[in-house]
Specification:
The protein is of the alpha+beta class. The protein contains two helices and seven strands; from the N terminus they run E-H-E-E-E-E-E-E-H.
Length: 148
């Protein structure tokens, strides 16, 4: 299975978590693998702005793709799409929890259908490598937000 929704609970208020999630320049600080973003057009982190990222995907340590910020509802929802032979969609939803904590729901949607070798490999590789990487990212986000 590819894609899915991943959830973590962070003992920090929504604005603290929002500052990390909705600023792509901070994403490297909570990525388990090297990651970098450069802005191509528009105001960074705003709807319609375009970026180029370099990061890890299975089989490619320096994977380059381009994307666009598609949604920004401060301070609860941030979404982007990245073109990698089809649009991959990343959505972050931040839900306040009664004790001042934040529930983060990260949803990753793969393009349908994946073409070529990716269509064959992704359903096998994603559960083995992609899901653990997402869990590590969310753990690092939690650590960073809780440290303030």
């Amino acid at each position: 299975m590819t894609g899915g929704t991943f959830t973590t609970r962070i003992q920090a208020p929504v604005p603290t978590v929002w500052a990390l999630v909705a600023d792509m320049d901070t994403h490297a600080s909570w990525s388990p693998k090297p990651y970098a973003v450069e802005w191509l057009s528009g105001e960074p982190n705003q709807v319609g702005s375009r970026f180029r990222s370099v990061g890890w995907v299975p089989g490619d340590k320096h994977h380059v793709n381009e994307g666009e910020i598609t949604e920004r509802v401060e301070p609860t929802r941030f979404a982007l799409k990245a073109d990698d032979g089809g649009w991959f969609i990343d959505e972050f939803d931040l839900i306040p929890v009664g004790d001042g904590a934040t529930e983060v729901r990260f949803t990753l949607t793969f393009p349908k259908p994946l073409k070529g070798f990716a269509g064959i490999a992704a359903p096998v590789v994603f559960p083995l490598l992609g899901k653990p990487d997402i869990h590590k990212r969310l753990d690092l986000l939690k650590e960073k937000a809780e440290r303030g």
